[in-house]
Amino acid sequence: MTMTHYMELLATNQPWNLLLFMAVPVILAETLAITELAVLFRHDAVGPVRTVNRWSAILAGGYFAIVFATLMVTAAIPLTLAGGWRGPIDVIAVGFYLFGIVPLGGVALLELGIIGRDRSEHERMKLHVAFVALFLLTAHVAMIAGMLDPTLIAGDAMAADQGPHPTH
């Protein structure tokens, strides 16, 4: 079975790639999601849970911006230019993973007051929740697609041995 580039990235350079590209972003995002629920149920705009929520949002967005830039330059763009994708499933897995910058970056920008300044506290909270939900959705699509054999849907098994392998 051929692996998606997403899964290959996580499997290569063990345990570092798994930690850097999966564990750190997921721990930050899960901390954000869990504290988000606590803030919503307690209607607590202040306090230690809100502080953890705020900082996990800022750190997740900043960290994932670095991950996004790194993977665009070392993987996505070179794979696209070299025709090295292993089929639509491969593109979906990597694409949805990289799309995580939109919700994580958005929630960080919201917390930093760069976006949403003109909205009420309730509207900012709704946007905050929407960003967290969107990240959970995109991350799970990336993980599920990443675990599939990329050649299942019109993939080219030969592409597995072509193009750059920036994850090594």
UniProtKB/TrEMBL annotation:
Q: What is this protein called?
A: Permease
Bilayer-crossing regions: 20-41, 62-85, 91-115, 127-148
- Originating species: Paracraurococcus lichenis
| InterPro entries linked | DUF6803 (IPR046547)
Per UniProt, which keywords does this protein have? Membrane, Transmembrane, Transmembrane helix
